[in-house]
Amino acid sequence: MKSECDEGLLLDGILSQARVDGSEIRRLLSQSHVRASDLIAEPEHRVEAMLQRAGLVVGDIFKIVRALRGFHSDGGGGGGASSQPQGKAARGSRNQPTMRCGLIVYSTTVLIVTLTILSFYLPAMIYHVRSTNHRMTRSTTYSTTLHGHYSLPAALGGLPAGGAMPAPRGPSGARVMMVTANQPLPCTTRRGDWIMELALRNKLMYATLHDYKTWWSTELVSAWDLEAAWNKIPLLYVLMHPESPVTQGVEWLLWMDDDAIFTDMNFTMPLEQYDRDGINLVIWGDPQRVYRANDIQGLNTGVFLLRKCEWSRQLMAEVAALATPSIRRQIGNKGRIAEQGALTWVLHSQAERWKDRVQLERNFTLNGNWMDYAKKWVPGKPKLALPVWGNDAIPFVVQYAGCQMCRGHSENGSWHDGGVRKCQNAFIEAYTFGDDQVLSLLGLRHLTMDTHLVRASAGSELYQRHQRMTRCLPSFLVIGTQKGGTSSFHFLLKSGWHDAVRVNSGEKEIHYFSWDDQFRQGPLTYQQRFDGSGDRLGECAEETKLRGEVSATYLDYPKAAERAAMLLPSARIVVLLREPVARLVSSFNMKWQVEICGKLTWSRTDCYNGVTSMRVINENNVAPKQRAAAVKVWNECSVDKKGLDHDCLRRDFVDKLSAAISDEERRLGECAKPGAFEELGSCLGVQGLEQAKLYALMEGALFLYRSMYSEHLAKWLKVYPAEQLLVIPSERLKEAGDMKDTMGRFARFMGLSDSGAEVHNDLIFKSSPAAKGVGSDGHVHENGRTYIAEAPADLAEKIHKILCPKNQELAQLLLDKKLIAEVGDMPWLATALKRDIC
How far apart (Å, rounded) are the C-alpha atoms in residues 567 and 630? Predict the structure, then answer.
């Protein structure tokens, strides 16, 4: 028989390795007749049950279990190295003392003590050395991998606010398994699968950073009775089985709903504190609402931390028992009670059994409501822009409950396309905020809060390389709008209005970012459109001059904004916005004149007066379709085959304008129906077209769409911060005094002087090639094409009414982004909003 001395030494070794209060635990184990050899021989779940029956606190139980686990894994001496059958044999013989054992016990005391000490402390030392080497190796490898090729100085500002990103936590981090689930079928909403992919990536990146294990489920564990949100209950129950190979070594399961994401990637939950307090379940909740009121909203099961133990398995079993439809009807919510209500009911009705092991966590934001945090993220900052419930700290987790971003339905029927878009936009902001903390480890960050595009953080080697390669490319882009004064602006800059500014040589518009054939030529060809460029990217003369270009297609062509942001993320963007109805009519007038006049359109302002014969049409037509249209007009409107009748031309202009507006209005109406494409441009078919078809559609059919400035400006604001945009009303380019002020504003925006020897304001009074003569009217740089007719009053009113909602969106966008101080800064917009037609 083993002596009591042996058992005592065994127990001392266990308690010492577990670092617990030995005297009280010895007393409890003695009263319950639990021996040290029992703890070594029994499986883990039985040891846990034995210690619970002995009255040990939960924190001490798991410290002891952890100590025994390390002992077994290193093959410690004594009974711990024996197999389970041997343990049973030992238990069977423990009450059969023999004389031989009694006679030799004293002679072997020293040997037993020595072996016992070695059996416990040597494995612990080996484990400690292994763990230390493991952490050091991981840390060294991580550091070498991260910093071996890229320099990430602290000054780059890419690290998360409040401190550096944690290195992997090694064995302590491995105590936790993050568990989440997605539905097994594709999402039914547009972009739903992409949103769920981002949500999963967010969770996996957090787990990677903190060395957590992960379990991602798409299966229904008990589909016949525990469907939908109930599925987490049997899943967690199975994972917590003491013999589960998946969770060996895991002490905590962190459940995350599929619509919950981490936003503070640096924060970790205080596990040691929960150990000391004997906590098994950590969940957001209000004690009054849970334990007294049985309020289903008193806690939130979207995110919670659950200790892997028998207590937790029993709790999950109690919750699962309430899934029976008859029981659901008894406890409330008309039989539709979900797992959140079931857990609330269990904690409320059996408080004495569970309450002491539950932490209703309110010391940090375990799962914030997404609506509270929308539009309050500040990139790279440790605080919110505005406090939520008096607290401006970054929440640990934000949940998008109720959004149904994947499934697209709700029981109360309140789901709709607009609501899903609102949720998704808010999700992208929060996801990007968290993802920037991860990307900072690579010296990267997102361009803005609502785009997937990234750029190198200032100071990183990637950033320095990009700066070297693009230093000869434009520092600013004038992106439109078409018929908004871009020709006048370009003429003034090309004429040398400012000595520190250079625009491209050759044709006014390069269309590099908007036209596929130009973009495919690559950035070196783009660079060589500017005088003084070398044969390699980054080589150019006159480095002191700011380079820029003007292309009116950039504002509204579908690919331009993202392409520009990838190549020129630091560029300044100038937007000229003309009163949209006037822009539309001017744009249509150019299309109509091209049809009638062909090449004459660019050689005389009244080109239709130059069409005097079929020979002129044949010489100037630019395409078979244009020639056919010109011949048709000639046959209808020619006078004695010597010219075109103006009255006939006016009718032709108005009829074609009315038909174009009616056709586009019909298409816009189709796009406004529920279930249509999320983006208006996609619905109208501008995405994915090859260049010739895209050009024909944009220039020949989408006059209303191109005047909907809020649609196009929003795309640029997704990839450029508002601080890099300058919005100028086109009316400010008409009067000489206004234009001088406007150009001074442009100079200051670019960081240049707005007066002095470098600035040549006298050029403002010279006309551009497309301008009317400057004289008593004082007008400068206005497009020179004459109009055969204007839009009739009723048609103009119809166009105003169609565009009015988009003008309202534009006003709100400009004010929200602080691109204007008040609507009056955009005179035509203020006038449009006063019209009682919306």
Answer: 42
179 - beta bridge partners? 215, 255
- Walking along the chain (838 residues) 10 residues at a time, the average pLDDT comes out as 65 80 83 84 82 80 77 45 36 38 43 45 39 38 29 31 38 78 82 90 96 89 68 90 91 95 96 94 94 89 95 92 65 62 91 94 93 92 92 95 71 56 89 95 88 86 91 95 92 93 91 95 94 87 85 96 94 96 94 89 85 89 84 91 92 96 94 73 89 93 96 94 96 88 96 94 72 40 70 94 92 94 89 69
**What would the two tokens of residue 203 be?**
């969770």
Beta strands, E only, 504-647: 546-550, 572-577
Q: In angstroms, rounded to a whole number, what is the distance separating the alpha carbons of residues 390 and 112?
A: 63
Give the closest residue to 661 by CA, choosing from 796, 521, 507, 513: 796
| Distance set, CA 370 to CA 365, 395, 430, 658 (Å) | 12, 10, 9, 46
C-alpha–C-alpha distance, residues 436 and 442, integer Å: 10
Q: What are phi and psi of 259, to 5 degrees?
A: -100, 20
d(CA 577, CA 829): 10
- Rounded to two decimals, the pTM is 0.68
- DSSP β-ladder status, 397-399 and 368-369: parallel
Task: Provide the pLDDT for residue 83.
Answer: 35
* Residue matched to tokens 């020897």: 757
Q: CA triplet 301, 306, 312: central angle to 5 degrees?
A: 105
State whether residue 297 is helix, strand or coil: helix
Q: Which amino acid is at 655?
A: D
- Residues 761-788 as b/e (b if ≥16 CB within 10 A, e otherwise) read bebbeebbebbbebeeeebbbbbbbeeb
Cβ within 8 Å of residue 619, ≥6 positions away: none
DSSP result, 324-373: SHHHHHHHSGGGT--HHHHHHHHHHHTHHHHGGGEEE--SS-SSEEHHHH
571 within 8 A of 612, measured Cβ to Cβ: no
In the chain, what's the furthest Cα-to-Cα distance? 140
In 444-551, at which residue ranges do the beta strands (DSSP E only) sit? 444-446, 454-456, 476-478, 501-503, 546-550
136 CB-contact burial (10 Å; exposed 0-12 / middle 13-18 / buried 19+): exposed
Placement of tokens 């006159």 in the chain: 542
What the block records as the tokens of 506 is 């050759």
Which phi and psi angles does 546 have, rounded to 5°?
A: -80, 130
Task: Decide if 358 contacts 281 (C-beta within 8 A).
Answer: yes
Phi and psi at 369, nearest 5°, equal -80, 125
Closest CA to 566 of 473, 436, 461: 473
User: What is the pLDDT, as a whole number, of residue 305?
Assistant: 97
Q: Which residues pair with 359 in a beta bridge?
A: 282
User: What pairs with residue 478 in β-bridges?
Assistant: 550, 574
DSSP state string for 696-736: HHHHHT-HHHHT-HHHHHHHHHHHS-GGGEEEEEGGGGTBH
The b/e string for 243-266 (b: 16+ C-beta within 10 A; e otherwise) is: eeeebeebbbbbbbbbbbbbbbbb
Tokens for 293, please give them: 């009121």
Q: CA–CA distance from 750 to each of 501, 555, 574 (Å)?
A: 10, 19, 10
Q: Which element (helix H / strand E) includes 213?
A: strand 213-217
pLDDT of the residue at 328: 57
pLDDT of the residue at 832: 78
Per-residue confidence (pLDDT) for residue 407, from 0 to 100: 73
Assess contact for 195 and 424: CB atoms under 8 A.
yes
- pLDDT value of residue 97: 40
d(CA 478, CA 716): 12
Query: Considering only CA atoms, which of 496, 573, 525 is closest in space to residue 761?
Result: 496
For 327, how many CA atoms within 13 A lie in the half-sphere containing its CB? 14
Closest of 258, 256, 239 to residue 248, by C-alpha: 239
Contact 705, 799 (CB under 8 A): no
Confidence (pLDDT) at 88: 35
